[in-house]
Design a protein that fits this description.
The protein is an alpha/beta fold. 41% of the residues lie in helices and 12% in strands. The protein contains seven helices and seven strands; from the N terminus they run E-H-E-H-E-H-E-H-E-H-E-H-H-E. It has a seven-stranded parallel β-sheet with strand order 3-2-1-4-5-6-7, with helices on both faces. Strand 2, helix 2 and strand 3 form a beta-alpha-beta unit. Helix 1 crosses helix 7 and helix 3 packs parallel to helix 4.
Length: 260
């Protein structure tokens, strides 16, 4: 299937690595133009060099901008970049997120919950708040899509990750509420929930559990392997397409049959 609007313009947060970077690559391969956004806070999070590499690989189809999703005003400048360079915004992927945990709820520092809420939930909220109006005001709202990256943690309860569970459940609820708000506009919203995917975030999760690597997570998926970011990105790219309207208000479980 091909998109009706050519080229489509997509803004992706958390674009420097992991599923975000893979999504940029998938969108570019489909002929889209992409504004790749990342906070580039540095190790253990993504770096400016990683974002620059994603932008360089996309050539003139990708523009990059360093933006912290906790800063709504800064996010608005990323929207301005899309409009200034390509004149439209057709889809948004809110992929920026962090992980924290490794303890039972009653021993989890309040700072962990605050961080997860600010980045993983309010970051998605801020992204929607500045991008949805631009899509509604664009030339083809009926083809516009908002996609948030949730997690299998948005459906299941994961051991020693109560705060992360709470945040990702909130992302699912946020998207469902957004989809309801958008009724009749043509713009749609959905969430994609990956399972254990070979990313720096999964490596960080392995560290929280004291595991030597990520391969042990394969047993939690019916495919019996860790997913590749490109597999999840393919699902995200479909959700960004004109045809992706079919998953409006839904959660796409791109999780390899996740079962904790």
């Amino acid at each position: 299937m091909t998109d009706r609007v050519d080229p489509r313009v997509v803004l992706v947060t958390g674009a420097a690595r992991g599923i975000g970077a893979a999504t940029v690559r998938a969108l570019v391969a489909r002929g889209n133009r992409v504004v790749a956004v990342d906070g580039c806070a540095g190790p253990p999070l993504a770096t400016r060099a990683e974002l620059d590499a994603v932008v360089a690989a996309g050539g003139d189809q990708v523009a990059g901008q360093v933006v912290d999703v906790r800063d709504r005003a800064a996010l608005a400048t990323a929207v301005d970049l899309a409009l200034a360079r390509w004149g439209r915004l057709d889809a948004v992927v809110a992929a920026a997120a962090v992980i924290a945990g490794g303890r039972p709820l009653w021993e989890t520092p309040e700072a962990d919950l605050d961080l997860l809420w600010d980045v993983d939930v309010k970051g998605v909220w801020n992204t929607a708040a500045v991008t949805v109006p631009a899509m509604l005001a664009g030339p083809d709202p009926a083809g516009c899509r908002f996609v948030a990256i949730a997690s299998a943690a948005g459906t299941h309860g994961l051991y020693h990750l109560a705060a992360y569970n709470a945040a990702k459940h909130a992302v699912v609820g946020l998207v469902k509420g957004l989809a309801a708000d958008l009724v009749g506009t043509g713009v749609t919203a959905c969430a994609v929930s990956p399972g254990s995917t070979r990313t720096p975030m999964l490596e960080a999760t392995a560290d929280l559990y004291g595991l030597p690597g990520v391969e042990g997570f394969a047993d939690n998926q019916l495919v019996r392997r860790v997913l590749d970011p490109a597999e999840v990105a393919a699902a995200v790219a479909f959700c960004c397409s004109v045809e992706g309207a079919v998953v409006n208000g839904s959660v796409v479980h791109a999780d390899g049959g996740f079962a904790p």
